[in-house]
User: Fold this.
Amino acid sequence: MASGETQTASEYIQHHLTNLTFGLHPENGLSFAHGAAEAKDMGFMAIHVDSMFWAILLGSIFCWVFYSAAQRASAGVPSGLQNFVEMIVEFVDNSVRDAFHRENVFVACLALTIFVWVFLMNLMDLVPVDFLPELAMALGIEYQKVVPTTDVNVTLGMSLSVFLLIIYTSIKSKGFGGFVGELTLQPFGKWFIPFNFFLEFVGLVAKPISLALRLFGNLYAGELIFILIALLPWFIQPVLSVPWAIFHILVIVLQAFIFMTLTIVYLSMAEESH
Amino acid sequence: MNINLTLVGQALSFSIFVWFCMKYVWPPITAALSERQKKIADGLAAAERGNQVQEQAEQEVAKLLDEARNQAAEIVASAQKRSGEIVDEARTTARSEGERLIVAARAEIEQELEKAKAALRAQVGELVVAGATRVVAREINADAHNDVIQELAAKI
Assistant:
């Protein structure tokens, strides 16, 4: 709680949970939002600059690291970074092979990107909550939310992409008729089409929603607890934040892994007919 | 917690990262992995082959050693046979040579004997004639009885 004596606890929390929003305000025009209310007024035509910045930065780091490892990849004895990258690639490849019973380069790349990227975005949660916002403040940036996965737009953006891929894969492997049939003709046969459709549609839509909200919820809650710990007197903070951070190491890997595994499972389910 | 364009931006960057991964990250790494797998498999196969070759070579060596041993034994046996033959030959040669020498010596002895006999015969004739001359000097002429004396001398 370093940002000024006049700030109350709820203001501090509010500040930490507000994205840096840039968009079309009805009154101010194209501008950065000053506060949550203005951001709300902007509606859909706005963008969270901080989320996008960190997400793209971390994604680029992922691409750069893996690209440099791929450039040096050889059949000889691997060392250091190459070894680490190969380990992750093999792990993802095995997961995909287990689900698809064959090689599937597209799904494997999708899974690899999800796993590493989500992990890196989650990892930002372990940066002490005040470091980067204070730094941004010093640079004149009002709001800064550094963990992209605590922004529901980010997780939904990924899960909706996966959702589109699920529908695309379904239609591609079963045909449009097959896809519609799967939605309407089970579990109770053709006399219960509305009921079947209701059940299956909920099941279908639940996939991206649960995918997005699981990741968002876990990370949001984790971040909130870090913020709450930061509100306590300084001598108690390490006692609580260190165990929570250690526990969180597990959470961030687990959530990245779950997102990846469920994506693979959903896509393999979409490919095979029931 | 507003839903806004960030969602679209995130989906876009997501697809770009996946595309990048498919194009520049995944193929080289998996290629290197499978190549290494092949290399290791080849190495193991080569080792296996090497072992087999060694085993074969050992068998070959054992066979060659056996053959060599047999040959050596054969050579020794034939050498022994040959030496026996040579000894036999030498013995026969020596025997025939000895016999020949004996025959030659005997012929020489015969000759010498013959010579001595001839000498003796000549001398005996003279001696007999001399003796007879002395005996007969008192009674008979030597010339008259020469044929009888010659006859006697031939009987020696």
Q: What stands out?
A: Chain B has a mean pLDDT of 89. The CA atoms of residues 43 and 49 of chain B lie 10 Å apart. The first helix of chain B runs from residue 6 to 136.
